[in-house]
Amino acid sequence: DTAVSQTPKYLVTQMGNDKSIKCEQNLGHDTMYWYKQDSKKFLKIMFSYNNKELIINETVPNRFSPKSPDKAHLNLHINSLELGDSAVYFCASSLRGGNQETQYFGPGTRLLVL
Amino acid sequence: DQQVKQNSPSLSVQEGRISILNCDYTNSMFDYFLWYKKYPAEGPTFLISISSIKDKNEDGRFTVFLNKSAKHLSLHIVPSQPGDSAVYFCAAVVGGSQGNLIFGKGTKLSVKP
Hints:
The structure holds 2 protein chains of 2 kinds. Chain A is an all-beta fold.
């Protein structure tokens, strides 16, 4: 009974390709997030959605487009992949998105751009 | 410009002893702090949190201490167990924000049997 799941777990692709990462949570949470962990191991927030609405949009290239078809899903589409996009991407969710709530993370998607 | 700093990349402790992981922050607007534990090839797992109105929170073997004047928090694990070996991330949230977690770089804890 996985709480926050991501697919695929590993993704190896060529520069210039377009790829998507899917995230689903079965916790009944209203808010979902995408984080990026770069080669220096920093975990940084990219986006958050509350009930399918964009709440946080950090300084991320517009090649990255999150899509939330319903509040249990938040997918990440990346256009024209670049070498620097190689990282681990984590999806997370929290109950309402308040600043004193616990966020629950998925297992991560390891993206390698060649 | 790191707002949350974990200056020790690694820590090695003997089983049964106390592990102390440290975290410093620069933003005085942070009002909630969390510790996450991460095993290789897994996502971060929530461990314990503390609000800025408290100076201590305890949960079993884990205690978090917050010193607001020093902008410092620490996680104490006692007694340490080999299963505690993982990377520990300190994270903070600005009051009134929409749950934007700011993470430190992590400290890798190794507990030796």
